[in-house]
Amino acid sequence: MRKRQILRVSFRAASRYATIIQEGGVGKEVFVIENLQHLSLSGQIIQPQFIMLCLCSHGSADIVLNGVEHHIVADDLLLVFADSVVEHIRWSEDFSMMALVQERGFVQETLMSMLQLWPYLVQLMRMPVLHLSRNALERVRLNYRLLTLRLCQTHHAFRREALMSSLQAAYFDVCDLLRREDMEAPMANYRSMSVFERFMRLLSQEYVRHRDIQWYARELEMSPKHLSGSVKMVSGRTAGSWIVMFVVAEIKSMLRNTDMSLKEMSEELHFPDQSAFGKYFRKYAGVTPTEFRGSL
Question: Which of 65, 72, 110, 293 is the most exposed place for a label (fewest CB within 10 A)?
Fold first, then answer.
């Protein structure tokens, strides 16, 4: 039997279905799809390269997300992380689900320093569907309305920052809903979660100076293998990939929000020289710092 191919869907490709999109000089980092039923996904296996925060308003759907079956009904909230594998999609004729689609780098920049959220976001990777109570539903709808308003405020001098703040508030609410749930699903074991939390706290303080997993392992008094294994058990990502994510997000923020030269950035982030800085960014971002800044 021929194996079906996974269709990797880029943020730009998905934006063709947008009903409300962030436009202008701030770039295109967030958009809304009013009803996912308009997408032709039946029979396909897709791997989105972006994050989706979805709210079902009518009908029902069955999907397999990262190998786990989920049944979605009205008033369910679904969080789909980048690189998740979505397959076996079926929905009722009256199915309707709104999606807030977010470019992964924008979400990383938005949530990078919010350490208190990471344990809940990791849990959402494992249990991505929440059934909302009436009060919780109103909170989520309010967040959607506010984010939609931010997307439409084309003349707001600080629209990107306001949008980022609103998105932070939305994730705080989602994680608070998760905290209130009496969830019986198995959590990652306590020791691994403790290692993950200590690593993330240290990383948030030191990524500007240190990009070597061996350094973090020494500081946490464990082997690099133990550190990376524990972090991956909890989050699904290695310690090294978390380090890269923080550093690349910081460089993008500098390129976007400052007029620092590349030499100044390389010194700020403790690279040996500008050449090493440029090679690092190109390796993980796919473009040079100059190309990235020019695309803004």
Answer: 293
3-state secondary structure at position 67: coil
Under DSSP, is residue 271 helix (H, G, I), strand (E, B) or coil? Answer: coil
CATH architecture of 190-294: Orthogonal Bundle (1.10)
pTM summary value? 0.69
When the candidates are 2.60.120.280, 3.40.50.300, 3.20.20.70, 3.10.450.50, the CATH number that belongs to 6-180 is: 2.60.120.280
SS3 letters across 174-200: HHHHHHHCCCCCCCCCHHHHHHHHHHH
The number of beta carbons lying within 10 Å of the beta carbon of residue 277 is: 21
Domain 6-180 matches domain 190-294 at the CATH topology level: no
For residue 142, give both structure tokens: 């309010």
> Which amino acid, residue 87?
E
Residues 3-10: contacts with CB within 8 Å, 24+ apart? 4/44, 4/45, 5/45, 6/45, 6/46, 6/47, 6/85, 7/44, 7/45, 7/46, 7/47, 8/46, 8/47, 8/49, 9/46, 9/47, 9/48, 9/49, 9/50, 10/49, 10/50
pLDDT in 10s for each residue of the chain, 296 residues: 344 566 788 888 888 888 876 665 444 788 888 888 777 665 677 888 888 999 999 999 888 887 788 899 999 999 988 878 787 678 888 999 999 999 888 887 888 777 777 777 777 877 889 888 888 899 999 998 888 888 888 788 888 888 889 999 999 888 888 777 645 444 445 677 778 878 888 888 888 899 999 999 999 999 999 998 888 887 777 889 888 888 888 888 888 778 889 999 999 999 999 999 999 999 988 889 999 888 87
Distances (CA, A) of 269 to 194, 217, 254: 28, 20, 11
